[in-house]
Amino acid sequence: MDLSYRIAVRYFFSRNKRSFISLIARIAMAGVAVGTMSMVVVLSVFNGMEELNRRIFKTFDADVKVTPAEGKRFNVTDGMLTTIKKVNGIRGVTQIIEDNALARYGNQQTIVRLKGVDRSFEALGRLDTALIEGSLRLTGANGTPYAIVSEGIRNALSIALEDITVPLEFLYPRTDTKQLNLASSDAFNHLALRPGGVFFIETRYDDYVIAPVALVDSLMQYRGDRSALEINIAPGFREQDVSKKLAEVLGSKFVVRDRDSLNADLLRAIKMEKLFVAVTLSLIILVAAINIFFSLSMLAIEKKKDVSMLYSLGAQPALIRRIFLAEGAIVALSGAVVGLLGGVLICWLQIKYGFVSMGMTTSLVDAYPVKLIWEDILYTGIIVVMITMVVSYIPARRAAEAGLILKV
């Protein structure tokens, strides 16, 4: 062990436990431990929220989405589908028509986001974990067309799945008339479906209704065009890699985005909040570490004679500085280790047992989401070390200068 660390360790463990300096040192250790623990827990919660949002997106959104670069619709040919399916990593392609429509059920009506999907949507089973009532079928055994509605639309229209006498109607403005008279029923195309299932993910999807794409095509008069293609990726392939390959294959007429790109604003907001919280907690750790500054300053005053004796024995100012820097490092790292272990333990207990609930029950999660990322723990440790070196340097330098003056 280096001489400076041996002396620093002796100073740390040989102090009078009732001394005021020792009390300040222990307060500094406790402050660093609490700050470090808080940073680990809070950063892990942000990681958990980011992971939860990705799980929510995955429940409803496809891995990759293809939309036209201009306009709302585009023609989907067999050749285009064949080209897409040849790309390595493609598991399935779902043709989509999506637009706003007026929904009416009994005496209730509301604006919904009507999403037409083809049969591959049922085969992929993306809403399996979000279904809370009914089934995900879009066509019955006798050919009856069904709609899958969100919990928000079910509540807004007071839909009862067991009532087979009341249809769920959709109205969409006709595009084949030169003059649109909103007071006339002839100004709208009509579509009647039977509600067959209810899903719930979270509020941003509460206005969605899913229906067979062929019927939505006839309602909105797309005439074979589609508003998007949703592509699911086979296991073992990265969405970003497949989306880049698709963009190269399809060319500039289409916009190809993976799931993270589709929700980039929300994910970016979470990352920015995480960054600002990390900076704030770093400042809190700095405030706690100021006690190390006072502790070392008072220790330097108490050990003036010892420092003078070391100079007399031939010690250099650099050795004295290293002694007090090591002393500060021991205090801070003791608190940091306790804080890191405590933070990891709290996060592990939350992951394992879910002690802290979100106060609501969803189809995806009940307990508060937490995800440990070891890079965050490493960065937290680095931040603590840097703060320790900053607050320890000034008293260490002053101790070296004071001892040199006493020697003279």
TrEMBL record:
Residues 281-400 form the ABC3 transporter permease C-terminal domain. Keywords: Cell membrane, Lipoprotein, Membrane, Transmembrane, Transmembrane helix. It is found in: Cell membrane. Signal peptide: none annotated. The keyword Cell inner membrane does not apply. Residues 27-157 form the MacB-like periplasmic core domain. It is a multi-pass membrane protein. The chain crosses the membrane at residues 20-46, 275-301, 322-351, 377-396. It holds the Pfam family FtsX. Belongs to the ABC-4 integral membrane protein family. LolC/E subfamily. This is Lipoprotein-releasing system transmembrane protein LolE. It comes from Dyadobacter linearis.
